[in-house]
Design goal:
By secondary structure, the protein is of the alpha+beta class. Helix content is 26%, strand content 35%. The chain contains four helices and nine strands.
Length: 196
């Protein structure tokens, strides 16, 4: 893994993906989660949601029902930037979630998250996912620290996700997301859709 030396859970270099590819990838993952859970969802790319403070354009707006009629709304933001997402970025999404009376928020990034952002997100029920090149998942142990290309028999999706969460001791857990391996999203999705 070519990790950032200051935050090993972040890539050193952001994923090389266009903003529209990035948002479509996230939308595809979330739609796949809904179909695996046998849920019908309405997912809108660049959806508009109304809040007390006005309208917000959301990268991916998700609406679905649970328990035969309880409506659930999720706001999903995609941060395509060079620097890791900061706590203030998560606070903005949290404010939108509250202002729109949405139920949950998710934040995807091409460059990772600062630890303060992960901590704030965990406290407020917001998922944090870093999108990386699939090859970033390949790691070897060796005498030197250079990045090694995966062997030809190792297959990775072009892009993968790393869902970040906190341990009870304040450490960072990384959960892999790939097209055929959505468990990390499904776990969060099922927790997030519980009506409180």
């Amino acid at each position: 893994m070519d990790s950032n030396p200051n935050s090993r859970w972040n890539p050193r270099v952001p994923a090389d993906i266009s903003p529209s590819q990035f948002e479509e990838l996230v939308l595809g993952w979330l739609e796949s989660c809904a179909s695996k859970e046998n849920r019908k969802i309405l997912a809108s790319h660049l959806g508009v949601v109304e809040g007390a403070g006005g309208e917000y354009k959301i990268d991916v707006l998700i609406r679905f029902t649970v328990f035969d009629g309880a409506a659930v709304t999720m706001l999903v933001e995609c941060k395509h930037q060079v620097r890791p997402v900061e706590r203030e970025d998560v606070m903005v999404l949290d404010a939108k979630v509250r202002d729109c009376a949405a139920h949950k928020g998710m934040l995807f990034s091409t460059s990772g998250f600062q630890k303060g952002a992960i901590q704030y997100a965990a406290t407020h029920g917001i998922a944090t996912v870093t999108v990386v090149r699939g090859k970033w998942l390949y790691e070897t142990r060796g005498a030197d620290q250079r990045q090694v290309e995966p062997p030809p028999w190792a297959h990775f999706d072009t892009f993968a996700g790393i869902r970040l969460s906190l341990t009870d001791q304040g450490g960072i857990l990384c959960h892999t997301i790939q097209r055929k391996r959505l468990d990390a999203l499904l776990e969060w999705f099922s927790q997030a859709t519980r009506v409180e």
